[in-house]
Amino acid sequence: MSQTLAYKNEEFLDSDDARPLRILAEYLEPMQAFQQARIRDTIVFFGSARLAPEGPLGQYYDAARELARLVTLWSKNLASHAHRYVVCTGGGGGIMEAANRGASEAGGRTVGLNIGLPHEQRPNPYVTRELTFEFHYFFMRKLWFAHLARALVVFPGGFGTLDELTEILTLTQTRKIDRPIPIVLYGSSYWKEVINFEALVKHGMIAPEDLALFQYADDPAAALALMQAGIAAEPDEAVPCLAHSRTARR
Length: 250
Prior knowledge:
- By secondary structure, this protein is an alpha/beta fold.
- The chain has a single domain, classed as Rossmann fold (3-Layer(aba) Sandwich).
- 42% of the residues lie in helices and 13% in strands.
- It contains nine helices and seven strands, in the order ααβαβαββαβαβααβα.
- It has a seven-stranded parallel β-sheet with strand order 4-3-2-1-5-6-7, with helices on both faces.
- 38% of the residues are buried.
């Protein structure tokens, strides 16, 4: 009686015992795709899947679309053998769709790191096909957001957006990401109402200098300028194609 090879045994691969293999696959598959596509680094867009262009906060959809278009036009005019500053999103609707759409309309490649959820989300049609990924594990998806990011722009959002924002803020604050990442909070009135960063300083939860980890913007051109200035402050040759964690000092 012939036996099924372990790596072809779907029942085993779906089991609890094979969870480490599934986690590793969600690291290795995107890595292979990014290397084959010569994606050197990304500009990451976070924001709510619930923001539609025709909704009450539709101006944020339009702004994300325009900013992604500007980022992509800038990227395409850079002299490089690789694809630089590629727009990357969570691959779903709302702000994610808007950013992928703007990048696509500018004729650029664009990344979507989608995750399967019960009620949302489905990959939007503007993500470059070979750069569309489906994740099961949130933490592996967040690793790929951080791994190639050179800048981050965060539009209004809920729990998921807050989780993603604070993850990058923590990695930057603790210097676990071995390079500075400009973080732009788009929509100052929204963010100043939703998160009282000054109160965190007042109560000693963060240091006053931690407020310099991010900046606010209220129009696409200003957001692009802030990201460009932050990126230019770091020597390009010091930035690897894949991020390295800072080695803990003993």
